[in-house]
Every structure is written in structure tokens, then in C-alpha cells.
Write a structure and sequence with these properties.
Blueprint (H helix, E strand, L loop, with lengths): L2 H21 L2 E5 L11 E8 L6 H15 L6 E2 L15 H13 L4 E12 L7 E11 L4 E11 L6 H12 L1 H23 L12
Length: 209
């Protein structure tokens, strides 16, 4: 193989790599994980839909809930469906979010995850790449203060499902909270195992009346 051919192949490879990187890219800004007690109660609040895609907020909620539960946050409480009447034509309004936050307070939930969906679509064009953009906030329910936030956007390949791109972005944005969830699950599991290992005389729950 001559030097000219090698040089040409190298240039073609570089161009192809650049094209692939531009076809599927992501941008994220993720805050550091907050300090949260392992036994803190977590909740899920409505996600605002700022796109023209109907019910994109509800889809993002479902993905975030599934990811956190898979990482050990099994006691995650989701707001009642009656507090979010988003339809195909009417997005959720601010009053519904405030009502969901009041519900979280009434349930003694310490921290609640919420967010916004800013992009959820297939791009217009020949390839029609999927594109997703969203922000997340972890709210201290008692005060309404945001203790953690993340924002990001991601595009995928032309034949990639929009839901798959959304899941990849959500997993990346939730990475600090996923670590907290796994730690809390491990601590709680260890506490439960220790309690089961105690003799009946030392474990009140196992004592008979």
C-alpha cells in the first residue's frame, strides 16, 4: 500500500469518525450529590412539558422512576395521578405542581424529584435523528428549596428510538442520585440483616406477647 493511499484512508477515517461523533452527541451539566440521610423518604413530582410533543413530561417521569427503583430506591413515592391532568392537548400547569408538592409534605416526604422536558422529538430531515433535552431538580420538600440540579441534551442515531436516547440521557443526569439510592439500599439491607440476626430476646419484633 503506497503512502498516498494510506494518507487518503486516514483522512477518510477521520472524516467518518467526526461525522459519527456529530450524529450522536450529548451535553450535560450535573451537580454534585447532596448530603441526604439513608432513611430519607423520596418522592416523584410532575415533570413540566415545554415541548410540542404531547405527554413528554409523563414519559420522562416514568423513565426516571424506573431507573431510581432499579438502583434500589424501591420506596420511591409517586404523586397521585389525579394531581396531573396533562392530556394530549393541555400541558400541566403550575397549580398542579404546587398541589403535588403539598401532597409530598402531607406524606412526610423529605426529598422529591421533579424536572422539565425541553426537547423530545425526531429532528426534521432525511435522517430524522432523535433528540431529547431536559432538566432535573431535587427539592427539599419542607422548604421547597432546590438542593440538586442537572441539565442535559442528547441526540442519537437516525435509527435509534427516541425512548432509548431519553433513557441514556436520564441515566447520565441521575448518576449522583443513583449512587445515593444504591448506598441507601445497601445500608437499609444491612440494618435489616442485623436485626434478623439478633436473638429473639434482643429483637422486640420477634418477641411473643
Amino acid at each position: 500500500m503506497t503512502t498516498k493511499i494510506r494518507s487518503l484512508l486516514f483522512k477518510l477515517g477521520s472524516v467518518a469518525a467526526l461525522a459519527l461523533s456529530l450524529a450522536a452527541c450529548s451535553t450535560t451539566d450535573i451537580g454534585q450529590a447532596p448530603s441526604i440521610a439513608a432513611d430519607a423518604r423520596w418522592g416523584l413530582l410532575p415533570f413540566a412539558n415545554h415541548t410540542e410533543t404531547p405527554q413528554a413530561g409523563l414519559r420522562a417521569e416514568s423513565i426516571s422512576e424506573s431507573i431510581l427503583r432499579a438502583d434500589g430506591l424501591t420506596e420511591l413515592r409517586r404523586y397521585p395521578a389525579s394531581l396531573n391532568n396533562e392530556t394530549l392537548f393541555e400541558p400541566m400547569d403550575r397549580k398542579q405542581f404546587d398541589a403535588a408538592l403539598d401532597w409530598a409534605r402531607s406524606e412526610n416526604i423529605a426529598y422529591a424529584l421533579s424536572g422539565t422536558v425541553d426537547e423530545w422529538r425526531y429532528k426534521v430531515g432525511i435522517d430524522g435523528e432523535p433528540a431529547v433535552g431536559m432538566t432535573l431538580q431535587l427539592i427539599e420538600v419542607s422548604s421547597g428549596r432546590v438542593v440538586w440540579a442537572a441539565a442535559g441534551a442528547r441526540s442519537g442515531w437516525s435509527r435509534e428510538a427516541l425512548s432509548a436516547v431519553a433513557q441514556k440521557l436520564m441515566r447520565s443526569l441521575l448518576s449522583p442520585l443513583r449512587s445515593l439510592a444504591r448506598t441507601a439500599a445497601a445500608i437499609n439491607a444491612g440494618s435489616a440483616s442485623a436485626a434478623e440476626a439478633l436473638p429473639a430476646s434482643a429483637n422486640p419484633e420477634q418477641q411473643r406477647p
